[in-house]
């Protein structure tokens, strides 16, 4: 029996004993959340004075001033705005690149950090993300030897707190992976970060290896080398992955890389910083999602950029996001955080990306959609997560203020519930 199962069965026994002693049926009620305002990401509307009843980890009813079941724990959020748990579709929980220990070099981090350290780091980052309201994340690789899959299992078993994780496992790339400056590594050293695959046979095997070991999304790197996958390669990857019921996320940092990803029909383009207006229109018409990873200035500085360059880069990314939004591409929230912003947790740094969306002119309602409903659909978890309605998992956050009017309210998370368990008290 898992720790979580032990904990909940102990609670049921204590609860049943109290109920029986009071002459009531041995049925234990869950929680009743009193929400001052409740936002539905599907409509972008706020409804006042709603009660959310939660039992067995699920939402059992939502309505105006519902009667509170006897024995239910009342959670008073009547001064706050409640919305579904937030999502980050592009995390690397088992990687921190540090200026001191790794000289800001991702390759040094991958070389010298032992798997035990990176697993524990993943646990700490997962807890910090959850504390900031992120109840679901898609972890897109750079997690060593399937540490993201292990992190997911540990969270599901109740060993450690953290979000629901959709893990990518090892990133599939053309020869050399993303260690551009260190080309000898793939052939001379053990390289758990990437599955190097060039031919169709290698691609098929890499996809199958990932799925076998627990990947729930296939992450590929389209570009970054002078040689790269072509549209036929990407189309082959997509058909193999889709045949197994798994989506494909494509890292594409160049104009050519994004076009190849679009032509190959991936499910999401990660970054897409050099996408042209025509490519953005093509993404819209093909229903391909852009996970924008619109870095904040502070994250770019933490990554080693000079402040002026960080501002220029940030502004360029914001402009691309503005164009994508104006053209009508479905944009999903994703951070790509790996560097530590001094004085901030991973979750706090992630919430700061809300400002990038606001700067790009994205409305509060659409930012919320990008962080909940649209993210859930991309991640394939929309049957259980991303909306607050009867039967969904009770992944619920509360913020101070009204994020429809002032999106920066999304950064003021005061309450976090995941699967009916409270992880941050109001
Ligand atoms: Zn990334």
What does the model show?
By secondary structure, the protein is of the alpha/beta class. The chain folds into 2 domains: 3-84 and 388-424, Urease, subunit C, domain 1 (Roll), CATH 2.30.40.10; 86-379, TIM Barrel. The chain contains 15 helices and 17 strands. The strands form 4 sheets. It has a 7-stranded mixed β-sheet with strand order 3-2-1-4-15-16-17, with no helix packed on it. Strands 10-11-12-13-14 form a 5-stranded parallel β-sheet, sandwiched between helices. The protein is globular and about 65 Å long. The two termini are 31 Å apart. Residues 8-28 have low confidence and may be disordered. Zinc ion (ZN) binds next to loops.
Explain the layout of strands and helices.
Layout: H1 3-21, E1 31-40, E2 45-55, E3 58-64, E4 73-84, E5 86-91, H2 106-112, H3 115-131, E6 134-139, H4 147-156, E7 164-167, E8 171-173, H5 185-188, E9 194-196, H6 200-212, E10 217-221, H7 231-243, E11 247-252, H8 255-264, E12 268-271, H9 277-286, E13 289-291, H10 297-302, H11 307-327, E14 331-332, H12 346-351, H13 353-359, H14 364-371, H15 373-379, E15 396-399, E16 413-418, E17 421-424
Parallel strand pairs: 1-4, 5-6, 6-7, 8-9, 10-11, 11-12, 12-13, 13-14
Antiparallel strand pairs: 1-2, 2-3, 4-15, 15-16, 16-17
Zinc ion (ZN) binds next to loops.
**What is the straight-line distance between the termini?**
31 Å
Q: Low-confidence parts lasting 5 or more residues at pLDDT below 50? A: 8-28
Q: Any idea how many domains?
A: 2
Helix content: 25-40%
Bound molecules: zinc ion
Largest sheet properties: 7 strands, mixed
Question: Which value, in Å, is the CA radius of gyration?
Answer: 22 Å
What number is the mean pLDDT? Answer: 91
- The class by helix and strand makeup works out as alpha/beta
Describe the strand arrangement of the main beta sheet, using strand numbers. Answer: 3-2-1-4-15-16-17
Number of helices: 15
Strand content: 15-25%
CATH superfamily of the largest domain, by name, is Metal-dependent hydrolases
